[in-house]
Amino acid sequence: MIRSVIIIILWTTNLVFSQGVDSSQAGSLFLKASLIYNTIENKLHVSHPSDIYGNGLLTTSTFIFKNYKIVNSMFGSLNEADAIRGNDAKFAGIYGYTHLAFVEYSNKFIDVIYGRSFLVLGNGKFGNLFISNFSRPFDQLQVKYKYRSFALRSNMIQLESIDSSKRYLSLHTIGYKNKKLEVLAGESVLLAGENRSFELQYFNPLIFWLPEQVNQSTGSGNSMLFGSIKYTHSSSLSFWGELLIDDYQINNESKGDLEPNEIGLLLGIEKTEWPLTSSDLWLEYTRITNRTYQTPDVSETYTHRGFPIGHYLGNDFDMFQLYYSQENMNGKLKPYISLAYLRDGANGLDTPFDTPWEDSTVTMVTGYSEPFPTGPITYVTEMELAVDYKFRNDSFINAGLFYRRKTLQGKTVDEFSIILRLWLSLNKTFNY
After folding, report:
1. Which segments of 327-410 are extended strands (E)?
2. Range of the domain at 403
3. Comparing C-alpha atoms, which of 75, 140, 131 is closest to residue 104?
4. Given Cys at both, which of 56, 67, 135, 157 links 77, Cβ 3.0 to 4.6 Å?
5. Rounded to whole angstroms, how far apart are CA atoms 99 and 86?
């Protein structure tokens, strides 16, 4: 059924919107191979776009013709740990997996993507609350409708199974964007169960899904609400924020209503062109409470192949991150400093969802509250001082110093290391 729906969507949109396309328009084939090497291990905060990749070889082929794009990307490594975002299968001494594999149809009114591709929603610099690129790309069907400054999106995503539970993620968003303001609102539901499958009511972009959850007709799920906003005050100053609501208690009638709110918050500010025209300075604060992204059912945890779907640090933490860079040599040389201060609670996505407010010692009169983050708290300071040098074929070399101070229950450990990132690419475009 899903395959038939995809074929109908692609055929219909092409028939309706392809009028006026020049049939003589040329196509292109883009081939690229990148060798990736990174010496950083166990660094908590993300400070570079390449940090989500393991060491190995990444190949990409992109075919473009008229309104269509076909992409395939493969990753391979000699080390099992570097291929952890795919699988642990080994063939001819190589650990590898399909990184991207999708077909996309796009015009001024609609975008349709079917296959394995990234999905990033939000304005965070290296992390997002709702959907980020920290997990492996999603196997999905996405339909995005566009009209002037508005966009409406629906996604059906298949996740990996956990034990006997099949898992699916559905989400939809509505967005508005002009030169000054970007606003995005959305909701998602993660479905899990032995006999669960895609449920079409959760692919309908025109209904609110929360009532569907309250009036269950096909089963429960882990649902969330999301909103983000970005305001560009000038060409050199912008502000942004994200809010994620996993569970918010409105009633106060039973002990179950004493459950703490499960909320994520992200706030940021960026100033460019100061003190020099090629300077970039930004500050971001992230706060996610305990049990966010989780339910008592482990299969409903907001993860994909063991990695968070939302923020890469999971939950039960807050973090300040300050970043400053300075481009030189027409953008080829970029020294930067990244500072992060993290308060990491004792819980996270890898700890079970507990219900201490249901304890016999807790009553509606005494109420229930817990500290944030939950103790014992690990206090972490990380600093990276490095430089990017970009050269031909989208290649770069990155080198610098890394420092971490970690304090837990009065015991402090300091670590220093030299970091090296290497990304060497060869690419070729064939036009016809």
Report:
1. 333-344, 378-391, 395-408
2. 27-431
3. 140
4. 56
5. 8
Interior angle at CA 126, CA 291 and CA 340, nearest 5: 80
Residue 359's identity, in one-letter code, is D
Q: Could you report the per-residue pLDDT of 17-41, keeping only the tens digit for each?
A: 444 344 445 799 999 999 999 998 7
Query: How far is it, in rounded angstroms, from Cα 207 to Cα 200?
Result: 11
Map residue 363 onto helix, strand or coil.
Answer: coil
The full DSSP string for 259-315 is SPPEEEEEEEEEEES-SSTTEEEEEEEEEE-TTTT--SSGGGSSEETTEESS-TT-S
Q: How far apart are CA 126 and CA 383, in angstroms?
A: 15
Do the domain assignments include residue 3? no
Domain for residue 7, yes or no?
Answer: no
Quick check: is 178 in a domain? Answer: yes
- Of 243, 221, 239, 242, nearest to 230 by C-alpha is 239
Q: If you count DSSP H runs as helices and E runs as strands, how many of each does the chain have, helices first?
A: 2, 21
Report the length, in residues, of the chain.
432
pLDDT in tens, 104-143: 999 999 999 999 999 999 999 999 999 998 888 999 999 9
Q: How far apart are CA 110 and CA 11, in angstroms?
A: 13
Write down the pLDDT at residue 20: 38
- Distance between CA 305 and CA 188 in Å, rounded? 18
Confidence of residue 218 (pLDDT cuts 50, 70, 90): low
Specify the pTM: 0.89
> Which residue from 182, 176, 189, 52 is spatially nearest to 130, judged by alpha carbons?
189
- 238-265 burial, b if ≥16 CB within 10 A, otherwise e? bebbbbbbbbeeeeeeebeebbbebbbe
* Pair of tokens at residue 404: 């971490």
**Into how many domains does the chain fold?**
1
And the tokens for 410? 């009065």
Distance, in Å, from the CA atom of 241 to the CA atom of 237, rounded to the nearest integer, reads 14
List pLDDT tens digits, range 152-190: 999 999 999 998 899 999 999 999 999 999 999 999 999
- φ, ψ of residue 277 in degrees (nearest 5): -65, -25
Q: Are 301 and 294 in contact (CB under 8 A)?
A: yes
Query: Is 20 a domain residue?
Result: no
Q: Any idea what the CATH number is for the domain that residue 109 is in?
A: 2.40.160.130
